Amino acid sequence: MSDDSTRAEFPAGGGAKVRLIGRVERQRLAAGTKSDHMGMVLLTPEGDRHVLRLRGGNPFKEPALEALNGRTVTLCGQLRENFFLLDNPPDVVD
Predict the structure, then answer these.
(1) Does the domain spanning 17-92 belong to CATH 2.30.30?
(2) What is the pLDDT of residue 53?
(3) Please, which residues have CB within 8 angstroms of residue 37's CB and are 6 or more apart in sequence?
(4) Residue 60 φ then ψ, to 5°
(5) DSSP state for residue 90 in the 8-state scheme
(6) What is the residue extent of each domain of the chain?
(7) Contact, 51 vs 30, CB < 8 A?
């Protein structure tokens, strides 16, 4: 197996806090797996897509994030390998 130098590495405890702005949308996640579900993602103006998770929340259905569907928000949290971890629900910008 070869070393994949393009894979991002993240500290075990998470990284530094970052701030992102983007539009929240409900999308299908993990299609074709046992974890297949509809979840919330952040789409940034730069074209990045981040799956949203609320610390201590349900990873499959989180009402605080679902209420933001279609809204533009400011997020503060930690970028993880497969998702963006929020300590608190985001602030609405629009």
Answers:
(1) no
(2) 92
(3) 28, 29, 30, 60, 61
(4) -100, -25
(5) P
(6) 17-92
(7) no
pTM tops 0.85: no
Two tokens, residue 56:
């201590």
Note whether 51 and 29 are within 8 A (CB). yes
- Write out the two tokens for 64: 């605080």
What is the separation, in whole angstroms, between the first and last Cα of the chain? 47
What is the number of other CB atoms lying within 10 angstroms of the CB of residue 67? 12
Type of residue found at 87: D
pLDDT per position as a tens digit, 45-62: 999 999 999 988 888 888
- Residue 30 CB neighbours (<10 A): 13
Tokens of 30: 């993990």
Question: Given the structure tokens 């602030």, which residue do they identify?
Answer: 91
DSSP string, the chain: ----TTS----TT---EEEEEEEEEEEEESTTSTT-EEEEEEE-TTS-EEEEEETTS-SS--HHHHTTTT-EEEEEEEE-SS-EEESSPPEE--
